[in-house]
Sequence to fold (610 residues):
Amino acid sequence: MTEREDAQDSILHAIQPRRGRALLVRSLLKSKLALIGMVIIVLAAATALTAPLLAPADPSRVAVAERLRPPMWQEGGTSDNILGTDSLGRDILSRMMYGARVSLLVGCVSVFLAGLIGVSLGLVAGYLGGWPDTVLMRIADIQMAFPFILLAITLMAVLGSSLGNIIITLAITGWVSYARMVRGQVLSLREKEFVDAARCVGVPRLRIMWRHILPNTISPIIVLASFGVSAAIVAEAGLSFLGLGVPLSVPSWGAMLSQAREVQSKAWWPAVFPGLAITATVFGINVVGDWLRDVLDPHLRKD
Amino acid sequence: MVTYIIRRLLQGIVVLFGISFVSFGAMFLAGDPTNLMINETWTQDQIDDFRHRMGFDRPWPVQYVDFLSNAVRGDFGTSIRTTDPAFSLVIERMPATLQLTFASLLFSTLGAIPLGIISAVKRNTLPDYLSMSFAILGQAVPLFWLGILMIQLFGLQLRWLPISGRGTIKHLIMPAIALGTFSLAANARLIRSSLLEALGQAYVVTARSKGLAERVVVIRHALRNALIPVVVIVGLQLGTLLGGAIITETIFAWPGVGRLTVNSIYNRDFPVVQASVTLLASIFVVTNIGVDIICAYLDPRIRLAVD
Fold:
């Protein structure tokens, strides 16, 4: 970075508004729901990270003699399998802990990729306008015409089930909302005085987009991304439930539910606990997302 | 208004072309589509013969033009498994899917309106907290789990409702609730915030100061305006519902297009997959055009902005 660019940035940054981090923490402590959500997220992430250390059993160990053991508090349950075993005698708690890794990994990575694609395209389309903008928006229109799950199912059917493919599929199906949102923001931001100022002092286009426009779109991106993660987790579980997600050998919450259905008339526990894990995680992320929206984007706050 | 409708229809045609291209192109993502459909036991001759019969040995632009010209005439080829026309297989099951989708649309909309009104009018009281807790929870429960839980409780334990198939109205209850709950929750929250905004407007103050009953103020004056964004969202939700129907139909063995699609994917029967993907997406596009036109009619600001 040259001295001149440095000077340009420091002048322009002095004019841009900055938000306080202390304010965020204080508001989080005040909102009980968001605090609960944050605790759930931290718990889920910690479980995912420490699954190999903490899981009471090998999640893939099949023990037919121990099949469909009820949870420990029910008659016939043992403390070896706190939440019972599934139709192949595998420990449900351990499988759920490993399942958290799949859910969170797919949720975070696919949203990161979708955001990266969407934000870059939206930024460029919105700032340049003209034909790149038209082409991008028509592609977005077409993609929005597909019900999200339908497109994901079609892609997974063609690509085949694997962890990598599900991440790619969810990134491809998810980028549009980021692109549209960022484009809309850029359209209004590029007319603002600070962008004019940057242009006047000769800041190159890419640098204006990166240093002066992008930071101003960050709040809505974060909000969108938080809901994106929960949507991706549900989508992964749904695809795995249909047998089109991660391979059967990988423990995942959706696949556990699908296997549980086959023995549902004999045992309720294999179908209840993994679903509870999905719901709790999604709930946690959603309430934090709601809170972030209220805090970061006062314009969107309706009440 | 006419300009707006024509414009919207033209855009719709462009999108329909795009849909046909995506349905066609998806098969080529993994290379030669022949590989997606063949059986491992086939000999090379059989594979070559199949490739030629399906026309996969021709350049793809030729195949696309062929696909498109057949598709507009309702010909998506024949099912690889049953040799029935793919289009009629899909059309036969469409009423079941539409019945399920509209039942859940009705459930979610009719359920959301009272919930949204109660929590907006009784803001920050117990009814508000209860209905919003329900809404936040409803947005977090994945529909396939909700379906499984309902089957467990109302189907297997209490034996109140049938757990699979289609026929009586009883068969429709659980699938429609499973599919509609997410939208119900989302709509209730939207109606609440939209109504709260409307209740703060000057015309509501005017209505109140005229001495109108609160019920009339809320329903006649505020709610009417608050429902416009809801109409837009309900249109978009139809896409979510059609997509969700695929999973719901699988859980409840509902004989619709969604279940057909999933089974065709398992059977690698891609002509049927293409036909159902194209048709479902087209239904979504057409309804959204309809919704946009209704909105433009309801809200003059929309059509004036475009004209």
In short: Confidence is low (pLDDT under 50) at residues 14-18 of chain A. Chain A is about 70% helix and 0% strand.
